[in-house]
Specification:
quinone, ubiquinone, 9 strands, transport, NADH_UbQ_OxRdtase_30kDa_su, alpha/beta, NADH dehydrogenase (quinone) (non-electrogenic) activity
């Protein structure tokens, strides 16, 4: 007897072929595709009737620079997308790594799922990941004049500048950060078997 997860894995392997690495852990299926195959794979996930992932739930950027005690040996930036098939009642996680750490860029999927617009802008704003083909890639959460990308691991916790209202100038001004940087929460690396019981 095959489980629903196994059926999904088999359907993904058949539809995507050898160009995708498919794994299952903790009741979830993850598909890792190369940047060159990203758009084709996403189109297949949506249009293949056996998969029918018609809804994009989430898209986010990831910075792997300090992953696993800094032992990560691979591309620094990735884009992770979660898809839902209402027809089949299953979900999948798709991960694509940006091939260039200096200029992280992948294709935009706004032509496949219009809902990706906001999420790709958020990943650009917070991680600096560029989406080729996005029609309106600009900051969405930080200030217009903000410098840097605050979710990158090398971005300082307290930032570079702070803003305050200056009563003499009667306007908001920017100035260098005046607080001492500090680490509030100790870093915890969980064991390999975390959450498997």
């Amino acid at each position: 007897m095959t489980t629903k997860l196994e059926v999904l894995q088999l359907a993904l392997e058949k539809a995507l072929g050898e160009g995708a690495a498919i794994t299952a852990a903790l009741g979830e299926v993850t598909v890792v595709v190369k940047a060159a195959d990203y758009i084709k794979a996403m189109q297949t996930l949506r249009d293949d009737p056996t998969l029918a992932f018609e809804e994009m739930i989430d898209l986010c950027g990831v910075d792997y620079s300090q992953y696993g005690e800094g032992t990560w040996d691979g591309p620094r930036y990735a884009v992770t997308t979660h898809l839902l098939s209402l027809a089949n009642n299953w979900r999948v996680r798709v991960r694509v790594f940006c091939p260039d750490d200096e200029m992280p860029i992948v294709e935009s999927i706004t032509g496949i799922w219009r809902a990706a617009n906001w999420y790709e802008r958020e990943a650009f704003d917070l991680f600096g990941i560029l989406f080729d083909g996005h029609g309106d890639l600009r900051r969405i959460l930080t200030d217009y004049g903000f410098i840097g990308h605050p979710f990158r691991k090398d971005f300082p916790i307290s930032g570079y500048v702070e803003m305050r209202y200056d009563p003499e100038q009667k306007r908001v001004i920017y100035q260098p950060v005046t607080i001492e940087p500090r680490e509030n929460i100790p870093r915890v690396i969980r064991e390999e078997t975390y959450g498997m019981k």
